[in-house]
Amino acid sequence: MATAQEKPTIMACDFDISGKLPKEAFEMFAVAQAKLLGLRGYITKVSEEHYRGVLQGEGKVIEAFKNLMASAAEYVAAIKEFIVKNLKVISDYTYDTFELRK
Predict the structure, then answer these.
(1) 99 falls within a domain
(2) I need a labelling partner for 78 at 20 to 30 A (CA). Which of 7, 25, 27, 58 fits?
(3) Is there a contact between 70 and 76 (Cβ–Cβ < 8 Å)?
(4) Is 32 a domain residue?
(5) What pLDDT does 1 receive?
(6) What distances in angstroms separate CA 16 from CA 3, 39, 52, 57, 85, one per listed residue?
């Protein structure tokens, strides 16, 4: 029987963002927004126009992060695509926070 105290389902996914993004400003924005939403994981720059990372959190929060990235006025023209891959349910978090990895 489900109770109100049940833990929400934790989802995990890999993500890729590509486009002509202003490096420092975008990195700070992505980390700040993920932390505000309560997501965990990381983002790292893999090439001049490509970021990759991991998100962990409730499915609706992961979707909110994706929508936020797509609608952020200063990045709309710069982001070519935001792809979420390997979305799955996990039993517990493996990251303590959301961070920028160099």
Answers:
(1) no
(2) 58
(3) yes
(4) yes
(5) 46
(6) 36, 16, 5, 17, 8
Q: Which domain holds residue 27?
A: 20-90
CB 76 within 8 A of CB 19: no
Look at residue 11 and tell me if it is in a domain: no
How far apart CA 100 and CA 80 sit, in angstroms, is 21
What's the number of domains the chain is made of? 1
Predicted confidence at residue 4, as pLDDT, reads 53
Per residue in 9-36, pLDDT tens? Answer: 999 999 999 988 888 888 999 999 999 9
At 67, list the tokens: 């929508």
The torsion region of residue 19 among left (phi > 0), alpha (psi -120 to 50) and beta comes to left
30-51 tens-digit pLDDT: 999 999 999 999 999 999 899 9
Indicate the pLDDT class of residue 5, thresholds 50, 70 and 90: low
Q: Is residue 62 in a domain?
A: yes
Which residue(s) pair with 43 in the sheet?
Answer: 53, 100
- What phi, psi does 69 have (nearest 5°)? -65, -40
